[in-house]
Every structure is written in structure tokens, then in C-alpha cells.
């Protein structure tokens, strides 16, 4: 089967600066104190994803999930190692990025679709489906400046989720929609997986990962700590489904963030 994502020894470092003002920085330097630290947000990560696989990515806050997703989506390049992908990548990352508040929902729909690589003809073909999905009919010709944050999110999701892609990546963006909208997104993501599109899904919700994914990657402090069966990975994380609020083992999870199991 074709390999769609190939990540080899990928490392991405960030600089953590300890001082905010120039004065603080100068004082720290004069006193011979450390002014910054370099750390690996993604640390020597290697894995590959085959066509049609649905991969979940879990880990504690700050473990490097979003950074890894940015490497896969091409938003960032690794400092060392390599990240190769095949085909068109789309997904729910930074949905609605590039919205112009002075333009109407309709104009922003076309603008956003263009940013995501859709031609005008493709957007016109999918227009009704996108509007229907966003459920913003009455407000389509209202300036986006007057949209609630939920309405903006719906429009952004509706466009992103309708882009034809070979690899679909989603970064827990679904957590902001209301319950019926989350349900709609879940159904659409199921359809995307069923249609054979490769899925890369970042979530803190074990239920959602169980429902959608056939394999799980777990990041710990930037390193790939687990790669395998979803249930085994969730057990590795020591998540207890029956106890939403308790902090256990490697982290705290609730079953109702994003696409929780209860949907
Ligand atoms: N642009 C950046 N510059 C500096 N540090 C960054 C940058 N982006 C992320 N980091 C740091 O890298 C680490 C990993 O962040 P990342 O957002 O990838 O984690 P995450 O696993 O997605 O977390 P969460 O579950 O909270 O979304 C964190 O310590 C974060 O502060």
C-alpha cells in the first residue's frame, strides 16, 4: 500500500526566552545568567502512515502534537530529519484563518476556499453543501464582523471539511462547535475515513479516537512514546473512561472534549 506520510527522525526546536524587556535581558547577560533555553518540541520522531489509515495522536498538553501536525501539514519545516507527504493535505487546523471581517460570509467562503487551494469552479460546485453544513443561510450576506465566534468557526469548518484531500488532518478544532454541530462534524469525518482518505487526528478524547482511528501515536515531551493499537495506546496513557475528572497516570482526559464517546 502507498505510504502517504513519512516522518524520519524529525526534530523541531524552539527557543524559550526568560526575559521580556531589553533591560532585563541586558541585566541578565551582565550577571552571566542564562537568557534562553532551546528545547525540542518534536524530538527525533519517526513513523509512516499508509494510504487509508486513520491515525490518532495523543499526549499531554505541550507534548508536541500541534507542532508535529504543523510539520506534517507543511506549515513548519523540521530543523533536522525529514517529513514527506503525498497528495493534497486539508483539514481542521486554524480553520477560518484569513477571514476578512469586512466581507460577508459568502465572500469569505470563496476567499477561504481559495486559501485552501480550491478553484472557483470547485467552490461553486460545493457551495450549497458548504452553506448547508455551516447552517448560516440567513447570515450568509452579513459581514463576518457581526458573526459570533461559533458562527465563524462553523463557516471555517464547513469550508475545510469540504476540501477534497488525500490526507485530512484535524487538531481538536471541533471542540468549539455546539453539540449538534460536533455531531455533524463527526459524521462527516467518519465519511472521510470511510472514503479511504488518510486521516491524522489529534485529540484528548479517547472515545473519539477509538471511534475514528485504527492506530494511535502517543507523544511524551516531543518523543514518540507509543505507536500501535488504539486501546493499548489509551491504556498506555492510563486513561480511565469511567472517571472523567481524576488525574491519572500520564494525564487528565475527559470523554467529552471534541468528539467525545457520548456523541
Ligand atoms: N512557535 C513556538 N515558539 C516557541 N515555543 C513553541 C511554539 N509552538 C509551540 N511551542 C512550545 O512547544 C511545546 C509543544 O507545543 P504543542 O503546541 O506542539 O503541544 P501540544 O501537544 O499540541 O499541546 P496541547 O495539548 O496543549 O495543544 C510547548 O512547550 C509549547 O510551548
Automatic annotation (TrEMBL):
Name the UniProt record assigns to this protein: ABC transporter ATP-binding protein
Similarity section: Belongs to the ABC transporter superfamily.
GO CC annotation terms, alphabetical: membrane
Coiled coil feature spans: none
GO terms assigned for molecular function: ABC-type transporter activity; ATP binding; ATP hydrolysis activity
CDD domains: ABC_KpsT_Wzt
Matching SUPFAM superfamilies: P-loop containing nucleoside triphosphate hydrolases (SSF52540)
Keyword annotations: ATP-binding, Nucleotide-binding, Transport
Species this protein is from: Nocardioides currus
Residue span, ABC transporter domain: 22-246
Pfam families linked: ABC_tran
Amino acid at each position: 500500500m502507498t505510504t502517504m506520510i513519512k516522518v524520519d527522525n524529525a526534530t523541531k526546536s524552539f527557543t524559550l526566552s526568560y526575559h521580556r524587556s531589553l533591560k532585563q535581558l541586558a541585566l541578565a547577560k551582565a550577571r552571566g545568567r542564562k537568557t534562553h533555553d532551546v528545547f525540542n518540541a518534536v524530538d527525533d520522531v519517526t513513523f509512516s502512515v499508509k494510504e487509508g489509515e486513520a491515525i490518532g495522536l495523543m499526549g499531554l498538553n505541550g507534548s508536541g502534537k500541534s507542532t508535529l501536525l504543523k510539520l506534517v501539514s507543511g506549515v513548519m519545516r523540521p530543523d533536522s530529519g525529514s517529513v514527506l507527504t503525498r497528495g493534497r493535505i486539508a483539514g481542521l487546523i486554524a480553520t477560518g484563518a484569513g477571514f476578512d471581517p469586512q466581507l460577508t460570509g459568502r465572500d469569505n467562503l470563496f476567499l477561504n476556499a481559495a486559501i485552501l487551494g480550491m478553484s472557483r469552479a470547485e467552490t461553486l460546485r460545493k457551495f450549497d453543501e458548504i452553506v448547508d453544513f455551516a447552517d448560516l443561510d440567513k447570515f450568509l450576506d452579513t459581514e463576518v464582523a457581526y458573526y459570533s465566534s461559533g458562527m465563524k468557526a462553523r463557516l471555517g469548518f464547513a469550508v475545510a471539511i469540504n476540501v477534497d484531500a488525500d490526507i485530512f488532518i484535524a487538531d481538536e478544532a471541533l471542540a468549539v462547535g455546539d453539540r449538534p454541530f460536533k455531531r455533524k462534524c463527526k459524521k462527516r469525518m467518519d465519511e472521510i475515513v470511510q472514503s479511504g482518505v488518510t486521516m491524522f487526528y489529534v485529540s484528548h478524547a479517547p472515545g473519539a479516537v477509538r471511534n475514528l482511528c485504527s492506530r494511535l501515536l502517543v507523544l511524551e515531551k516531543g518523543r514518540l512514546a507509543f505507536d500501535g493499537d488504539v486501546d493499548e495506546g489509551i491504556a498506555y496513557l492510563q486513561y480511565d473512561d469511567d472517571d472523567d475528572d481524576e488525574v491519572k497516570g500520564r494525564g487528565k482526559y475527559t470523554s467529552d472534549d471534541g468528539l467525545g464517546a457520548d456523541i
